[in-house]
Amino acid sequence: MASIAEMAKEERQGYRGDSVDRALAKGIMRDGGFQNDLEYMDDNAEKLAGTQDKTTGREEQRQKQAAVRDYRVMDSVLSHCSLCFKQSEQPDGSTLLTAPAHPIIALGNQVYLALPDREPMNDGHCIIAPIEHTAGSSLRCDDDVWDEIGNFMKSLIRMFAEKNQAVVFMETVIWTEPARARHCFLECIPMPVGKAQDAPAFFREAMVEAAEEWSQHRKVIDTLVRESGGGGFRNTMTAKMPYFHVWFNPKGGMAHVIENAEAFPEWFGREVVAGMLDLPPTVYRKPRRIRESQSQRRERAEEWKAQFAWDRFDWTKMLSQ
Question: Are the beta carbons of 171 and 184 closer than 8 angstroms?
């Protein structure tokens, strides 16, 4: 996993490449007698270079200050992220990796499956999240991460099917700025197969009602992979704008662009599911945080795995073979 400093540095890559050219252009603009010929530029090389060096120095100083700010913002975000594996330096120089305060069900190379740290909506409620901090949208994840997300989706679908249940996968991205965006994750909520058949209609109606009166985007965006090719969530949506997305299967589902982040409820998807399952508002609006020790989290995870016979469907076992 990348360190905090490396992630902060990545945010600033690409700024230095044209700084020299910009500085030279500014120097030429300040020179009222500039002539666009080699003889003039040769005679005034020292003056132009001096201006360029000063401008470049100021540019580099601004970049350093911006990098420090980015580092501090990222450091604060990661230190408060409840879904991150925390890294800490030990006295002997080694690095200790601490798991999130969630009951961990299974751990892949890039992604993990866990239970919520708040009261779940029902017995099977779980989450899929990348191990490395990915702010905002899962669309920022690379192919390796998405391969593992897909593996967890397929495993959960097979697991719940044995109990005559289907599952919806939901992602809510309200903020995209690194300072405000949370660690991306997918919520996985099972429901009886009969109810799940009505899920597309329930979500479509909710998205239409949630749309702004003068919306700039389609109220409901189809993200299913088309048989003729194309389509799909990753080819349809962008990480640059807030959205809500629901998968009815790994091939996609439907999405809604969030145009007013301040007004959009972060529990939107859970509210739709609660309406389908006749659950009270307390289970989706502000569920109670579960305070538990590390041993209690392990116990809750083992109980969940036993209840749903997870070991029979755990694809991560192949990683150790």
Answer: yes
